Amino acid sequence: MKQGKRDRDIIICRCRDVTEEELKQAIEDGFDTMELLKRKTKIGTGTCGGRTCLQLVRRILARETGRELNEIKLPRERSPIVPLPLRFAAGEKTREDL
């Protein structure tokens, strides 16, 4: 199997169905940081919150740009758009209880 065909088939981010080929193309198009790749491809924004894909993407980015792995910083985490009191996360109350 040719390398190009294989890259099309390898899914790196299962939550967003992002393939290795899509990542390589984005890097080639100038999206050469984790933050830019996240904005372009939505990696790390799925159900797992990046726990599954971000380290894989980081390795691909290092390999494709010739940088060391420790030079590549993970994208910053962002707060939810609608702030929620911590008691909701703790399971004490729901929105309907308000």
CATH fold name: Arc Repressor Mutant, subunit A
Secondary structure: helix percent? 40-55%
The gyration radius over C-alpha positions equals 17 Å
Summed up, the domain count is: 1
Q: pLDDT under 50 segments (min length 5)?
A: none
Q: Class by helix and strand content?
A: mainly alpha
Number of helices: 5
Total strands: the figure is 2
The appropriate CATH architecture is: Orthogonal Bundle
Distance between the termini: 58 Å
How would the global form be characterised? elongated
SSE order, one letter for each helix or strand: HEEHHHH
Largest sheet: 2 strands, antiparallel
Indicate the mean pLDDT: 84
Please list the strands of the largest sheet in the order they lie side by side: 1-2
What is the beta-strand fraction? 5-15%
CATH class: Mainly Alpha
CATH superfamily, by name, is BFD-like [2Fe-2S]-binding domain
Concise synopsis of the structure shown:
This protein is mostly helical.
Tags for this model:
98 residues; mainly alpha; Arc Repressor Mutant, subunit A
List the helices and strands and how they pair.
Layout (H helix, E strand, L loop, with lengths): L2 H7 L1 E3 L4 E2 H9 L5 H8 L12 H12 L20 H4 L9
Antiparallel strand pairs: 1-2
Helix pairs in contact: 2-4
